[in-house]
Amino acid sequence: MAVDRRRFGQTDLWVSPLCQGTAFRTLPRADGPEARAVLAHALDSGVNFFDSSNAYGWGGAEEVLGKALAGRRTQAVICTKVAAFAPPNNGEGKGAPMPFTRANLFAQAEASLKRLGTDYLDLYLLHQPDNLTPPAEIAQSMAALVESGKVRHWGVSNHSGAQLREYLELQSPVPPAGAEEYYNVAGEHLDAEGKSRAARLEAEVFPLLRQSGMGLLAFSPLDTGFLDPGRAIAEGSPLAGLAAALDQVAVQLGCSRTQLCIAWVRSCPEVSCVLAGAESPAQVEENCQGAQLTLPPEARVTIEEARQLYRQQQAAAQKVR
Question: Is residue 144 part of a domain?
Answer without folding.
Answer: yes
